[in-house]
Amino acid sequence: MTDVLSLGFGGALVAFGLGAWFLCRKKADAIEAEIAAAKSWPCVAGTVTRSKLISVKSTAGVYPSVHYQFQAGGQTHNSTRILFGGFTGTRAEAEAFVAERPVGATVHVYCDPENPKTAVLVPEGDGKAWRQNGLWIGAAFAIAGLIIALTGGG
Fold this sequence. Notes:
Elements: H1 4-38, E1 43-56, E2 61-72, E3 75-79, H2 91-99, E4 106-112, E5 115-120, H3 128-151
Antiparallel strand pairs: 1-2, 1-4, 2-3, 4-5
Helix pairs in contact: 1-3
């Protein structure tokens, strides 16, 4: 028979898993809404001020880092957003992205007319990674919680 502590802890893990899944789905929805909105934003010319690959030791991967400057709303703005939801491409795609945008290059910048500080180089992205990660994280915690709750932790 399960004891109260195991049942409570297991229930908390299930609730955490469901919460993680829900929050990741909301983040994916927000990314997809930003993408849809950005496709109608005006495009202005910008200049690349820094362009390089960033290594991520924990995953042995790389992603592009592009800093750019542009004029909008009568002011100069700086940004680093290249896509919505983060870069999820391969090393070759990251290298190509940086190679196409060297320092000094002119780039198209899509900026929110209501908030020109909000800008992106490529008005695309993918919320799918957030949905998938949320599903896996949520499922892992929910399953662990159910096992603990139903077996009494032993």
